[in-house]
Amino acid sequence: MGCCRGKNILLLVLSLCCVQALSAQECNYIEYHEFIKIAKENVYQKKYKKARESFQRAFAITDFPLGRDLDLALYTANKVKDNKWAPVIAEKLAKGGVPLRYFVRFKHRKWFKGFKFQFEGFSKFFEKNFNHQLRNEYMALLAKDVLFNKKYHKWRTREIYPSLEELIDGASSVLLDYKKIICDYGFPTEKKMGYNYIKKQNAVEEYNTLVLIVHLYQTGTPLLKETITSVVCEGGIRPDFAITLKKIQGYGNGAGVEQEMKARYEVFRKTGK
Predict the structure, then answer these.
(1) Where are the alpha helices (DSSP H) in 194-269?
(2) Does 146 map to a domain?
(3) Last residue of some domain: 129, 158, 188?
């Protein structure tokens, strides 16, 4: 989209050109998260049967449960030795891109042999039904954000001395990449990309979406201010995080990266902090 290739990074441009319109929908994920919260509390209290009930009620609300919730639900199913529910959860994770090696821990369960036999079909489903280009671009953006944030904090602690222009360019680069993804694909969610399997940990985790958004807010661009309800209803962020976002402020007035970084430079350099 032409409007997203320019250098203007004002929120107005993002609002008018880049945010894709969402069709009217019921916000099932709000109720979903309410049941998930109860389920998690029961797991932590080792009340696994009650947790199972809450997980099942949550998963009945939406056709796409979130990966971290499925991970904990599979743990719960294993605890209560539910050999009918466990493979249902495992199938959802596998179809969302979680590899077989993640499930090997359950190889002694009755359901594992049949699940393993069907696994190739689950993998094909993942390859066909998710946007792998979006995932690759998004993972690259998250990595870029981590690198810039490390650089910024080293600047704050006076370990390095980049210029103000370098700080502005670094933050702007992250923002522009984010804008392009929103323009091309809409808000990146697990439902579009598949689940975030971490090979080194052999675990399913959330994407670092929340961290990225916080950083964007802190560098002067409250991108979700007008669309946050729709993003929650897509399963993109949790309702409690949407509330937290409203409290996040930078050192500037939210007018954009350049204004924010100048304000931070004033605070952390010219005042001697």
Answers:
(1) 209-218, 228-233, 239-245, 257-265
(2) yes
(3) 129
Task: Please indicate, yes or no, whether residues 119 and 231 belong to a single structural domain of this protein.
Answer: no
CB 50 within 8 A of CB 79: no
Q: How far apart are the C-alpha atoms of 125 and 97, rounded to whole Å?
A: 9
DSSP label at residue 3: G
Q: What is the pLDDT of residues 153-194, one digit of tens each?
A: 898 888 988 888 999 899 999 999 999 999 999 999 999 999
Tell me which DSSP letter residue 18 carries: I
Give pLDDT tens digits for 115-132. Answer: 999 999 999 999 999 999
Tell me how many domains the chain contains: 2
**pTM for this entry:** 0.85
The whole domain housing 67 covers 28-129
- Looking at the fold, whether 75 and 148 belong to one and the same domain comes out as no
The last residue of one of the domains, among 100, 129, 158, is 129
Q: How far apart are the first and last CA of the chain?
A: 42
Please, is 184 exposed, middle or buried when counting C-beta atoms within 10 Å of its C-beta (0-12, 13-18, 19+)?
middle
Q: In angstroms, what is the C-alpha Rg of the chain?
A: 21
Alpha carbon separation from 203 to 23, 100, 259 (Å, rounded):
33, 12, 40
CB-CB contact of 39 with 85 (8 Å): no
Q: At residue 116, what is the residue type?
A: K
Question: Does one domain contain both 156 and 229?
Answer: yes
Residue 215, token pair as written in the block: 């950083």
